[in-house]
Every structure is written in C-alpha cells, then in structure tokens.
Amino acid sequence: LLATLPEGPRYAVEFRHDSWRDDSVLQRLRDRNIAWVSGDAEDESPEHCVTADFVYARLRRTAYSSDELDAWNRWFDEQRQANRDVLVYLKHDDSGDIPQAIVERWGAG
Q1: CA-CA distances (angstroms) from residue 18 to 47, 52, 57, 72?
Q2: Contact (Cβ atoms closer than 8 angstroms) between residue 105 and residue 67
Q3: DSSP states of the chain as a string?
Q4: pLDDT value at residue 62
Q5: What is the pLDDT of residues 12-27, one digit of tens each?
Q6: pLDDT tens-digit profile of 85-103?
Q7: What share of the chain has pLDDT > 90, as a percent?
Q8: ∠34-62-57 over CA atoms, to 5°?
Q9: Top-confidence residue, 11 or 18
Q10: Is residue 61 within 8 Å of residue 92, measured between CB atoms?
C-alpha cells in the first residue's frame, strides 16, 4: 500500500490492532514520512508515536479530565518545539458534539 501512494500529500495511517505495532512497520512509515495516528479512546490507553515530520492524534473519548488534556497538551507542545505540525481529530457523533472539556480548554467547536 505505501509504495502505491503518490508523492506530495501528507498521509496518516491508523492501525486498530496491536499486531501492526512492529519496528518494521514503524520504519516503513518513517521512510515515507507517513504519520502513525496516535490514538486515545475509551477502550485503549493514550498512545504517542512519531513517524513523520508531523503528528496526527485522534482524541475519541467522550470525556477528558484536566490532567488527561494537560498530558496531551504537553506532548503537542513537545512536537511543535521539534518543528512538527500537530493535527488533531476530535471525537464527534451524529450531532457534531465534542467533549466539553476540549471546548473549554482549546476553544474547539
């Protein structure tokens, strides 16, 4: 798949099974400057992984504590300080709602 992607656009890949977290997969993403999607959901622990010159995170929980958002914010700041763009996808549903803590913290919405 990676070999068929045209040069130019940025790509991010989200793997939903632990078997993909393998050094050879991570290296292939690094070789093509493709971001591993760092995820956070109700049924998984927060994950921070860097494989490109930008990071892409998916914050998919229905609620976040201030401490959880502080931890993400620290990681985002570290990435920006390393001259990486930070792209974040927020949880949504059919009504377009996102967790209130994110709205209060980052003014999203």
Answers
A1: 12, 20, 17, 21
A2: no
A3: -GGGSPSSS--EE---SGGG--HHHHHHHHHHT-EEEEEEBTTB-------SSEEEEEE--S---HHHHHHHHHHHHHHHHTT-EEEEEEP--TT----HHHHHHH---
A4: 79
A5: 999 878 888 899 999 9
A6: 999 887 666 665 566 667 6
A7: 43
A8: 15
A9: 11
A10: no
- Rounded to whole angstroms, what are the CA distances from 9 to 12, 26, 35, 86, 98? 10, 19, 12, 16, 27
The CA distance from 22 to 2, in Å, is 16
**What is the model's pTM?**
0.82
CA dist 85 and 56 (Å) reads: 9
